[in-house]
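Recall that a protein's primary structure is simply its ordered list of amino acids. Everything else, from secondary elements to tertiary packing, is in principle encoded there. The following example makes that idea concrete.
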Amino acid sequence: MRSIFCLVVSVCMLLSVKVAAQSAHPIKVAVFAPIYLDSAFNGANYKLGNSNLPRNILPGLEFYNGVMMAIDSLTAEGVNAEVLFFDLKNSAEPIPQLLAKPEMADVSLMIASFNNRNDIKPLADFALSKKIPLLSETYPNDGGVSENPYFVLINSTLKTHVDALYKYVQRNYSTANLVWVKRKGAVEDMIQQFFADMQKKTPSIPLKIKTMELVDTFATADLMVSLDSNKQNVLICGTLNEPFGTAVMKTLSANRDYNCTVIGMPTWDGFKDLGKSDLKGVELIYSSPYYFPRTDKTSQLIISRYKNKFQARPSDQVLKGFESMYHFTKLLIKYKQDLVHNLSDKSFRVFNDFDIQPIKFKRENLQADYLENKKIYFIKKLDGQIKSAN
């Protein structure tokens, strides 16, 4: 708890100061994340005692920590930059007030870890007005933004994931017993429609796929009835609902007479119960715009430094924070005002490749509604082991 407490105190202090720069005119980067310092501090006094930090604080705090580690690396390389960090959940300074700060006037790049859809558009509008990229690193990614070629979704949309999923299944499992497992719901209908649209426009032979719709309290027999004991069964579970997805995995884990692979949605990466012992023996595949194998030299260095400083293993949020700060700051130095047209450059690759493409809601539009990362990784998880499935 002591290391976490020190981390929160350091964040509280750094929100009001700038990272030291080397000259009067460095490049300037603004980073935004939900830290919820108000819930941890009463003024300068820490008010949570010796209890663990609330769960809602941790993702933003870990992202911040990754950003700070990247700043250490950039400083060691002699990079001339100034970094501003803002708490998106600071009730004393709402987003419009943050954006009106004088130090935001000459920012060249904005990086954000969002957790609320309503926070997105104000920052995106500011980025458009300043003609500087705003990189959205986390879900949610749909903030109602349009006609804004400076808003960049590094965390790809659900449609992009489903489009990539269709091609992935077509490439790897076209002869398997394919079953679309459907839960009732508007989001589930939308996901299924995305998949059906790909089915209609594919230049190859369309996939042969069954559909089963289950209630949340489905019985084992309801799920097993569409499986084939003589073939590989691939169940595509088109839902973001954690209890339903976990129930599918648990049912299959308890009935291993069938060879089954479950393909989930990108949010399944964060399903907490999928690592429990009663969910073993079933292969899970899900998509992500990020893949952190943690075996490369950079990952190992970050893991070592993080463990030494905080007595903990860095989460994916730490690695996202590090990658976004380091990679795109280096690209900003290389391209300056033309960064937005060179976001896919792999010159300073850290962990992931990015394929940033303009997205237009209407083909006749003169400018993009936003930019989006089209690079999707597929990740396989089995009995706690995670590896690439590409």
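The two ends are 39 Å apart (CA to CA). The chain is about 35% helix and 20% strand.
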